[in-house]
Design brief:
alpha/beta; Aspartate Aminotransferase, domain 2; 2 domains; 8-stranded mixed β-sheet; binds pyridoxal-5'-phosphate
C-alpha cells in the first residue's frame, strides 16, 4: 500500500475488465466484451443541427455557469416523459447529473458511512460496486435471476442489522440482461417498504425494450423510499455524460450540496444542446430505431447460440437492453473459457467482476449491441468451439 493514497482509493480494485482486455487483441478479434451503445445509431446529424440552433438562439449564454440542479426545461422534459408513463415526479425532485454514474457517486457521498451495509444485486453492475466501494461500505449481496430479486435472501438481509440502501437494475440488468417480473417487483417492494429501506432503482436501459411490455417501476410502488437514476447515455449519446437522479425532498437537498461540492453543475452547454435535440426530435421514434436494431442483434445471437453451444450452457432471455448472460457447465470456469476463446480471437467479459462474493465463477456477459449480425454469427461459432474444446479436455 502506498501511504500517499487514501485508504479509500487503495481499497478499490482496478477495473478488471480493463485488466483482462489491456493486451492488444489480435487483429480480427470479435468482441462481445463491450458495454457500449452502437455508435452507428447516434443521431449525429440531428445533434449537429441542435448545436447550431443553440448557438444561434442562445448566444454566449450557453457558456455561462448555471444552476446546480440542471436546466429547468430539461428537468421539465424528464418529468413530462415520466408523466407519459404514469409516474408523477415533481421537477424539484429531479437533479441533472454527469451521467447516472455520478448519481451513484453522489448517493455514496450523501448516504454511506464507512462500514454501512449496502444491499446490492448479485451479479451486479460493476460501476455501482466501484462507485460505492469508495465510501467503504460492507456489501451484502442479494442474488438476482430471471425470477427477479431473490425474496428469501432479501428477507434475510432485511431482518438483520439495518442496511442503508438496496441497489438494483430491474430492467435488462447489467450484466445479466434479466428483468424483475411484475409479481417479483410487488413482492420486493412490499418487503422493502415495510422496513423503510431506500431502494435505488437504476434504470438506464428501461426504454430499450424490444419485446414484451413495460412493467411497474419501484417508484410507482413506493415513491417515498425509491431513488431513481436515469440516463441519456443509452437512448441518445453517452459522450454528453448526462443523466439524472429522482429523490425524495430531504435527500434531494443533500444531493444538491454534494453535486455543488463535486462539480457545481453538469455542462450547461451540453444540457442546452440535449434540450434542443429533444425539442426538435421525437425521442420515441429514435428509441424505436435502437430497439429494432438491438432486438434483431439479440435474435441473431440467440439463434447462433442454439446452433453452436452445447445444451448444458444456459442463457438468459433478455427482452431489451444490450446483454445476454450465459452459465457454463460445472466443469468450466468463465476465466478458463476466456483464455481459450481469446486464442481463437473472440472475447467476452467473464462474470467474476460482477460478484462481491468471491467464488468459482461459471457465468459470462455477452454484448450484442456493438456487433454486426455477421460477426455475431462467427463469434458465437468460435465461442461454441472453445467451449467444446474445454469440455473434451475435461
Ligand atoms: C446499470 C448501469 N448504471 C449506470 C450506468 C452509467 O451510465 P451513465 O453514467 O453513462 O449514465 C451504466 C453504464 O453502463 C449501467 O450499465
Amino acid at each position: 500500500m502506498n501511504a500517499l493514497f487514501s485508504d479509500r482509493i487503495n481499497d478499490v480494485p482496478r477495473s478488471f475488465i480493463r485488466e483482462i482486455l489491456k493486451d492488444a487483441l489480435a487483429p480480427g478479434t470479435i468482441s462481445f466484451a463491450g458495454g457500449l451503445p452502437n455508435r452507428d445509431l447516434f443521431p449525429a446529424d440531428e445533434i449537429q443541427a441542435a448545436t447550431e440552433k443553440v448557438f444561434r438562439l442562445r448566444g454566449k449564454d450557453i457558456f455561462q455557469y448555471s444552476q446546480s440542479e440542471g436546466l429547468p426545461e430539461l428537468r421539465e422534459y424528464i418529468a413530462a416523459r415520466y408523466r407519459q408513463r404514469g409516474l408523477d415526479v415533481p421537477v424539484s425532485n429531479i437533479l441533472i447529473t454527469s451521467g447516472s454514474q455520478q448519481g451513484l457517486d453522489l448517493l455514496g457521498k450523501t448516504l454511506v458511512n464507512e462500514g454501512d451495509l449496502l444491499g446490492i444485486e448479485e451479479p451486479g453492475y460493476l460501476g455501482a460496486i466501484q462507485a460505492f466501494a469508495l465510501y467503504r461500505p460492507t456489501f451484502v449481496p442479494i442474488p438476482v435471476s430471471e425470477q427477479g430479486m431473490d425474496t428469501d435472501a432479501l428477507a434475510n438481509v432485511l431482518s438483520g442489522p439495518p442496511v442503508k440502501l438496496i441497489y438494483g437494475v430491474p430492467n435488462f440488468q447489467n450484466p445479466s440482461g434479466v428483468t424483475y417480473p411484475e409479481a417479483n417487483r410487488h413482492a420486493v417492494a412490499a418487503q422493502v417498504r415495510a422496513t423503510r429501506t431506500l431502494f435505488i432503482e437504476d434504470d438506464p436501459y428501461g426504454d430499450l425494450r424490444f419485446e414484451g411490455k413495460h412493467l411497474t417501476s419501484f417508484y410507482q410502488l413506493m415513491p417515498e423510499n425509491t431513488v431513481m437514476l436515469g440516463s441519456f447515455s443509452k437512448v441518445v449519446v453517452p459522450g454528453f455524460r448526462l443523466g439524472w437522479i429522482v429523490a425524495p425532498d430531504a435527500l434531494m437537498q443533500k444531493l444538491i450540496i454534494a453535486k455543488q461540492a463535486s462539480d457545481l453543475h453538469s455542462s450547461s452547454f451540453l444540457q442546452e444542446v440535449m434540450l434542443q435535440y429533444l425539442r426538435d426530435n421525437d425521442l420515441d421514434v429514435h428509441i424505436q430505431k435502437i430497439t429494432s436494431a438491438y432486438g434483431q442483434q439479440k435474435q441473431v445471437m440467440m439463434a447462433a447460440i442454439q446452433q453452436h453451444f452445447p445444451e448444458d450452457v444456459s442463457m438468459t432471455h433478455p427482452e431489451g437492453g444490450m446483454f445476454l448472460w450465459a452459465t457454463l457447465p460445472e466443469s468450466m470456469t468463465a476465466m478458463a473459457l476466456f483464455n481459450e476463446a481469446v486464442k481463437d480471437r473472440v472475447v467476452f467479459v467473464p462474470g467474476d467482476p460482477f460478484y462481491v462474493t468471491p467464488g468459482v465463477i461459471r457465468t459470462l456477459r455477452l454484448n450484442y449491441s456493438c456487433v454486426t449480425p455477421e460477426l455475431i454469427r462467427s463469434g458465437i461459432e468460435r465461442l461454441g468451439t472453445a467451449i467444446r474444446t474445454l469440455e473434451t479436455r475435461g
